[in-house]
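Table 4 source record.
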Amino acid sequence: MEQILSHSQSANMVICLMLAIHLFSVRATLRLPAQMLGANFLMYACQSLLLIGLLNDLSPAYISVIRPVSAMLIGPIFYFYFLTVKRLKPQFKKADILHIIPCLLLLLAFITQSRLLFMTDYLIIGSFIFYLALMAIPMLQGKKLFNHLKTEPTQPYKWLCILALMMFVNIAIDAAVAAEIQAGKPLNKSLALFLGTSLFLIINATVAFETLKRNPLIEWMYELSLRTLSEKDTVSAQSKEHFARWETLVKTQELHKREFGITLTEAAKKLQMPSRQLSSAINICYGKSFSQYLNDKRVQEAKRLIQLHPEMNMIDVMYASGFSSKSNYNKEFQRAVGMPPSKYRLTLE
Protein backbone atom coordinates (compact mmCIF):
# COMPACT_ATOMS: atom_id res chain seq x y z
CA MET A 1 0.00 0.00 0.00
CA GLU A 2 2.91 2.34 0.76
CA GLN A 3 4.14 2.29 -2.83
CA ILE A 4 0.63 2.83 -4.21
CA LEU A 5 0.13 5.76 -1.81
CA SER A 6 3.42 7.31 -2.82
CA HIS A 7 2.75 6.97 -6.55
CA SER A 8 -0.81 8.28 -6.20
CA GLN A 9 0.40 11.29 -4.24
CA SER A 10 3.04 11.91 -6.92
CA ALA A 11 0.32 11.91 -9.58
CA ASN A 12 -1.79 14.28 -7.45
CA MET A 13 1.20 16.59 -7.02
CA VAL A 14 1.92 16.75 -10.77
CA ILE A 15 -1.73 17.39 -11.73
CA CYS A 16 -2.20 20.06 -9.03
CA LEU A 17 1.05 21.74 -10.04
CA MET A 18 0.01 21.82 -13.70
CA LEU A 19 -3.41 23.27 -12.79
CA ALA A 20 -1.72 25.89 -10.60
CA ILE A 21 0.62 26.97 -13.41
CA HIS A 22 -2.30 27.12 -15.83
CA LEU A 23 -4.45 29.23 -13.50
CA PHE A 24 -1.59 31.62 -12.72
CA SER A 25 -1.20 32.23 -16.46
CA VAL A 26 -4.93 32.78 -17.21
CA ARG A 27 -5.56 35.96 -19.18
CA ALA A 28 -8.76 37.56 -17.95
CA THR A 29 -9.99 41.01 -17.07
CA LEU A 30 -9.97 39.96 -13.42
CA ARG A 31 -6.99 37.68 -12.80
CA LEU A 32 -6.98 37.63 -9.00
CA PRO A 33 -9.70 34.93 -8.58
CA ALA A 34 -7.89 32.57 -10.97
CA GLN A 35 -4.58 33.29 -9.24
CA MET A 36 -6.08 32.52 -5.81
CA LEU A 37 -7.50 29.26 -7.14
CA GLY A 38 -4.06 28.53 -8.57
CA ALA A 39 -2.58 29.17 -5.11
CA ASN A 40 -5.07 26.63 -3.75
CA PHE A 41 -3.90 23.94 -6.15
CA LEU A 42 -0.29 24.90 -5.44
CA MET A 43 -0.87 24.31 -1.71
CA TYR A 44 -2.36 20.88 -2.45
CA ALA A 45 0.68 20.09 -4.62
CA CYS A 46 2.98 21.05 -1.72
CA GLN A 47 0.96 18.91 0.69
CA SER A 48 1.32 15.91 -1.64
CA LEU A 49 5.07 16.50 -1.95
CA LEU A 50 5.49 16.71 1.83
CA LEU A 51 3.35 13.62 2.35
CA ILE A 52 5.54 11.70 -0.09
CA GLY A 53 8.49 12.70 2.08
CA LEU A 54 6.78 11.37 5.22
CA LEU A 55 5.82 8.11 3.51
CA ASN A 56 9.41 7.58 2.39
CA ASP A 57 11.07 8.74 5.66
CA LEU A 58 12.79 11.70 3.99
CA SER A 59 13.77 14.27 6.67
CA PRO A 60 10.70 13.44 8.82
CA ALA A 61 11.56 15.98 11.54
CA TYR A 62 11.66 18.81 9.00
CA ILE A 63 8.57 17.73 7.06
CA SER A 64 6.51 16.98 10.18
CA VAL A 65 6.68 20.71 10.98
CA ILE A 66 6.22 22.22 7.50
CA ARG A 67 3.29 20.01 6.50
CA PRO A 68 0.86 20.92 9.34
CA VAL A 69 1.88 24.60 9.26
CA SER A 70 1.27 24.84 5.51
CA ALA A 71 -1.98 22.86 5.90
CA MET A 72 -3.25 25.70 8.11
CA LEU A 73 -2.96 27.96 5.05
CA ILE A 74 -5.31 25.88 2.87
CA GLY A 75 -8.47 27.13 4.58
CA PRO A 76 -7.55 30.86 4.35
CA ILE A 77 -6.42 30.60 0.71
CA PHE A 78 -9.61 28.72 -0.15
CA TYR A 79 -11.63 31.48 1.54
CA PHE A 80 -9.60 34.23 -0.17
CA TYR A 81 -10.59 32.73 -3.54
CA PHE A 82 -14.24 32.87 -2.51
CA LEU A 83 -13.87 36.51 -1.41
CA THR A 84 -12.23 37.60 -4.67
CA VAL A 85 -15.24 36.29 -6.61
CA LYS A 86 -17.83 37.50 -4.10
CA ARG A 87 -16.55 41.06 -3.56
CA LEU A 88 -17.74 43.83 -5.85
CA LYS A 89 -14.10 44.86 -6.26
CA PRO A 90 -11.73 41.86 -6.08
CA GLN A 91 -8.89 42.92 -3.82
CA PHE A 92 -7.35 42.14 -0.46
CA LYS A 93 -8.19 44.19 2.62
CA LYS A 94 -5.98 44.89 5.60
CA ALA A 95 -8.22 42.77 7.84
CA ASP A 96 -7.59 39.72 5.62
CA ILE A 97 -4.11 39.36 7.12
CA LEU A 98 -5.77 38.19 10.34
CA HIS A 99 -6.55 34.88 8.65
CA ILE A 100 -2.82 34.05 8.58
CA ILE A 101 -2.43 34.37 12.38
CA PRO A 102 -3.43 30.74 13.25
CA CYS A 103 -0.74 29.46 10.87
CA LEU A 104 1.88 31.69 12.50
CA LEU A 105 0.77 30.62 16.00
CA LEU A 106 1.14 26.95 15.05
CA LEU A 107 4.62 27.65 13.69
CA LEU A 108 5.49 29.39 16.97
CA ALA A 109 4.18 26.37 18.90
CA PHE A 110 6.56 24.08 16.97
CA ILE A 111 9.49 26.43 17.53
CA THR A 112 8.86 26.59 21.29
CA GLN A 113 7.87 22.91 21.51
CA SER A 114 4.58 23.84 23.17
CA ARG A 115 2.68 21.18 25.11
CA LEU A 116 -0.36 22.04 22.98
CA LEU A 117 1.13 20.46 19.86
CA PHE A 118 -0.95 17.32 20.47
CA MET A 119 -3.91 19.41 19.24
CA THR A 120 -2.35 20.05 15.81
CA ASP A 121 -4.61 17.64 13.90
CA TYR A 122 -7.70 19.06 15.60
CA LEU A 123 -6.61 22.61 14.76
CA ILE A 124 -6.20 21.76 11.05
CA ILE A 125 -9.58 20.03 10.87
CA GLY A 126 -11.16 22.89 12.85
CA SER A 127 -9.65 25.39 10.40
CA PHE A 128 -11.19 23.54 7.45
CA ILE A 129 -14.60 23.45 9.15
CA PHE A 130 -14.41 27.15 10.06
CA TYR A 131 -13.60 28.30 6.51
CA LEU A 132 -16.11 25.95 4.95
CA ALA A 133 -18.79 27.50 7.18
CA LEU A 134 -17.61 31.04 6.33
CA MET A 135 -18.12 30.28 2.66
CA ALA A 136 -21.24 28.11 2.92
CA ILE A 137 -23.37 30.59 4.90
CA PRO A 138 -23.27 33.41 2.28
CA MET A 139 -23.81 30.84 -0.49
CA LEU A 140 -27.24 30.05 0.95
CA GLN A 141 -28.32 33.18 -0.93
CA GLY A 142 -27.93 31.20 -4.15
CA LYS A 143 -26.44 32.35 -7.44
CA LYS A 144 -27.64 35.94 -6.94
CA LEU A 145 -24.50 36.26 -4.79
CA PHE A 146 -22.62 36.65 -8.10
CA ASN A 147 -24.97 38.99 -9.97
CA HIS A 148 -22.22 41.63 -9.99
CA LEU A 149 -20.18 39.54 -12.46
CA LYS A 150 -20.44 40.07 -16.21
CA THR A 151 -21.02 36.39 -16.72
CA GLU A 152 -23.82 33.90 -16.10
CA PRO A 153 -23.82 33.55 -12.26
CA THR A 154 -24.84 29.88 -12.41
CA GLN A 155 -21.35 28.69 -13.41
CA PRO A 156 -19.33 30.38 -10.61
CA TYR A 157 -21.97 29.26 -8.11
CA LYS A 158 -21.77 25.62 -9.26
CA TRP A 159 -17.97 25.73 -9.24
CA LEU A 160 -17.86 27.04 -5.67
CA CYS A 161 -20.36 24.37 -4.59
CA ILE A 162 -18.00 21.73 -6.01
CA LEU A 163 -15.04 23.28 -4.16
CA ALA A 164 -17.09 23.34 -0.95
CA LEU A 165 -17.86 19.64 -1.42
CA MET A 166 -14.14 18.96 -1.92
CA MET A 167 -13.38 20.79 1.33
CA PHE A 168 -16.04 18.71 3.13
CA VAL A 169 -14.48 15.49 1.79
CA ASN A 170 -11.08 16.77 2.92
CA ILE A 171 -12.42 17.29 6.45
CA ALA A 172 -13.86 13.77 6.59
CA ILE A 173 -10.63 12.19 5.31
CA ASP A 174 -8.37 14.15 7.68
CA ALA A 175 -10.58 13.23 10.64
CA ALA A 176 -10.49 9.54 9.68
CA VAL A 177 -6.69 9.57 9.20
CA ALA A 178 -6.20 11.28 12.59
CA ALA A 179 -8.42 8.64 14.23
CA GLU A 180 -6.41 5.81 12.65
CA ILE A 181 -3.08 7.30 13.75
CA GLN A 182 -4.38 7.72 17.31
CA ALA A 183 -5.40 4.06 17.24
CA GLY A 184 -1.77 3.16 16.51
CA LYS A 185 -1.93 2.55 12.76
CA PRO A 186 1.13 3.96 10.90
CA LEU A 187 0.52 6.60 8.23
CA ASN A 188 1.71 4.36 5.37
CA LYS A 189 -0.90 1.75 6.37
CA SER A 190 -3.83 4.20 6.68
CA LEU A 191 -6.89 3.00 4.75
CA ALA A 192 -8.51 6.45 5.06
CA LEU A 193 -5.43 8.08 3.52
CA PHE A 194 -5.46 5.55 0.69
CA LEU A 195 -9.16 6.18 -0.05
CA GLY A 196 -8.71 9.94 0.24
CA THR A 197 -5.68 9.97 -2.05
CA SER A 198 -7.54 7.91 -4.66
CA LEU A 199 -10.61 10.14 -4.47
CA PHE A 200 -8.63 13.36 -4.85
CA LEU A 201 -6.65 11.86 -7.73
CA ILE A 202 -9.96 11.20 -9.53
CA ILE A 203 -11.22 14.72 -8.75
CA ASN A 204 -7.99 16.44 -9.81
CA ALA A 205 -7.73 14.39 -12.99
CA THR A 206 -11.36 15.22 -13.84
CA VAL A 207 -10.77 18.95 -13.28
CA ALA A 208 -7.67 18.81 -15.50
CA PHE A 209 -9.57 16.93 -18.21
CA GLU A 210 -12.52 19.35 -18.11
CA THR A 211 -10.08 22.28 -18.26
CA LEU A 212 -8.59 20.84 -21.46
CA LYS A 213 -12.13 20.42 -22.85
CA ARG A 214 -12.91 24.05 -21.88
CA ASN A 215 -15.98 23.00 -19.94
CA PRO A 216 -18.29 26.02 -19.30
CA LEU A 217 -18.08 25.23 -15.59
CA ILE A 218 -14.41 26.26 -15.69
CA GLU A 219 -14.27 28.51 -18.75
CA TRP A 220 -16.17 31.35 -17.06
CA MET A 221 -12.98 32.29 -15.20
CA TYR A 222 -11.26 33.10 -18.49
CA GLU A 223 -13.98 35.62 -19.30
CA LEU A 224 -14.36 36.99 -15.78
CA SER A 225 -15.02 40.71 -15.62
CA LEU A 226 -16.88 42.97 -13.27
CA ARG A 227 -20.28 44.60 -13.61
CA THR A 228 -20.06 47.71 -11.44
CA LEU A 229 -23.29 48.75 -9.80
CA SER A 230 -22.57 52.45 -10.26
CA GLU A 231 -22.29 52.32 -14.06
CA LYS A 232 -24.76 51.23 -16.71
CA ASP A 233 -23.50 49.14 -19.59
CA THR A 234 -23.83 51.12 -22.81
CA VAL A 235 -23.82 49.64 -26.28
CA SER A 236 -21.21 51.74 -28.03
CA ALA A 237 -20.83 51.91 -31.79
CA GLN A 238 -17.50 50.11 -31.43
CA SER A 239 -19.04 47.23 -29.44
CA LYS A 240 -21.78 46.88 -32.04
CA GLU A 241 -19.19 46.74 -34.79
CA HIS A 242 -17.10 44.12 -32.98
CA PHE A 243 -20.19 42.01 -32.25
CA ALA A 244 -21.37 42.25 -35.87
CA ARG A 245 -17.94 41.08 -37.06
CA TRP A 246 -18.09 38.22 -34.56
CA GLU A 247 -21.56 37.11 -35.72
CA THR A 248 -20.43 37.19 -39.34
CA LEU A 249 -17.36 35.10 -38.52
CA VAL A 250 -19.44 32.50 -36.64
CA LYS A 251 -21.93 32.29 -39.51
CA THR A 252 -19.40 32.06 -42.34
CA GLN A 253 -16.99 29.65 -40.63
CA GLU A 254 -19.60 27.84 -38.50
CA LEU A 255 -17.32 28.13 -35.47
CA HIS A 256 -19.93 26.64 -33.14
CA LYS A 257 -19.72 23.37 -35.10
CA ARG A 258 -15.94 22.97 -34.82
CA GLU A 259 -15.01 19.52 -33.52
CA PHE A 260 -12.80 20.79 -30.70
CA GLY A 261 -14.58 24.10 -30.21
CA ILE A 262 -12.84 27.46 -30.21
CA THR A 263 -11.38 29.51 -27.37
CA LEU A 264 -11.89 33.21 -26.80
CA THR A 265 -8.21 33.79 -27.60
CA GLU A 266 -8.46 31.92 -30.92
CA ALA A 267 -11.62 33.80 -31.91
CA ALA A 268 -10.09 37.16 -31.05
CA LYS A 269 -7.01 36.29 -33.10
CA LYS A 270 -9.19 35.55 -36.11
CA LEU A 271 -10.84 38.95 -35.72
CA GLN A 272 -7.49 40.65 -35.00
CA MET A 273 -8.67 42.25 -31.77
CA PRO A 274 -7.83 41.81 -28.05
CA SER A 275 -9.65 38.95 -26.27
CA ARG A 276 -10.99 41.34 -23.65
CA GLN A 277 -12.51 43.56 -26.36
CA LEU A 278 -14.33 40.66 -28.01
CA SER A 279 -15.56 39.29 -24.67
CA SER A 280 -16.84 42.73 -23.68
CA ALA A 281 -18.64 43.23 -27.02
CA ILE A 282 -20.43 39.86 -26.70
CA ASN A 283 -21.39 40.54 -23.07
CA ILE A 284 -22.72 44.03 -23.86
CA CYS A 285 -24.53 43.28 -27.13
CA TYR A 286 -25.67 39.71 -26.48
CA GLY A 287 -26.02 39.85 -22.70
CA LYS A 288 -24.24 36.54 -22.18
CA SER A 289 -20.69 35.18 -22.17
CA PHE A 290 -18.60 34.00 -25.11
CA SER A 291 -19.16 30.30 -24.30
CA GLN A 292 -22.89 30.81 -23.68
CA TYR A 293 -23.25 32.49 -27.07
CA LEU A 294 -21.69 29.47 -28.80
CA ASN A 295 -23.85 27.04 -26.85
CA ASP A 296 -26.97 28.98 -27.84
CA LYS A 297 -25.91 28.70 -31.47
CA ARG A 298 -25.41 24.96 -31.04
CA VAL A 299 -28.88 24.59 -29.53
CA GLN A 300 -30.40 26.54 -32.44
CA GLU A 301 -28.63 24.24 -34.89
CA ALA A 302 -29.83 21.15 -32.97
CA LYS A 303 -33.42 22.40 -33.10
CA ARG A 304 -33.10 23.02 -36.85
CA LEU A 305 -31.75 19.52 -37.48
CA ILE A 306 -34.47 17.89 -35.37
CA GLN A 307 -37.15 19.80 -37.27
CA LEU A 308 -35.73 19.09 -40.75
CA HIS A 309 -34.55 15.51 -40.12
CA PRO A 310 -36.85 13.83 -37.57
CA GLU A 311 -35.33 10.45 -38.46
CA MET A 312 -31.82 11.61 -37.49
CA ASN A 313 -30.20 9.86 -34.51
CA MET A 314 -29.89 12.13 -31.44
CA ILE A 315 -26.16 11.40 -31.13
CA ASP A 316 -25.69 12.47 -34.74
CA VAL A 317 -27.67 15.64 -34.04
CA MET A 318 -25.46 16.31 -31.02
CA TYR A 319 -22.20 16.08 -32.99
CA ALA A 320 -23.58 17.85 -36.07
CA SER A 321 -24.65 20.83 -33.97
CA GLY A 322 -21.22 21.16 -32.35
CA PHE A 323 -21.64 19.56 -28.93
CA SER A 324 -18.89 17.18 -27.82
CA SER A 325 -20.60 15.51 -24.85
CA LYS A 326 -24.10 14.18 -24.29
CA SER A 327 -24.40 15.65 -20.80
CA ASN A 328 -23.55 19.17 -22.01
CA TYR A 329 -25.87 18.77 -25.01
CA ASN A 330 -28.84 17.76 -22.84
CA LYS A 331 -28.09 20.40 -20.20
CA GLU A 332 -27.78 23.30 -22.65
CA PHE A 333 -30.83 22.19 -24.66
CA GLN A 334 -32.89 21.96 -21.46
CA ARG A 335 -31.69 25.41 -20.39
CA ALA A 336 -32.49 27.10 -23.72
CA VAL A 337 -35.66 25.25 -24.74
CA GLY A 338 -37.08 24.16 -21.38
CA MET A 339 -37.10 20.46 -22.26
CA PRO A 340 -34.61 17.77 -23.33
CA PRO A 341 -34.05 17.21 -27.07
CA SER A 342 -35.91 13.86 -27.08
CA LYS A 343 -39.03 15.50 -25.65
CA TYR A 344 -38.69 18.39 -28.06
CA ARG A 345 -38.77 15.92 -30.95
CA LEU A 346 -42.02 14.42 -29.62
CA THR A 347 -43.69 17.85 -29.61
CA LEU A 348 -43.07 18.07 -33.37
CA GLU A 349 -44.83 14.79 -34.20
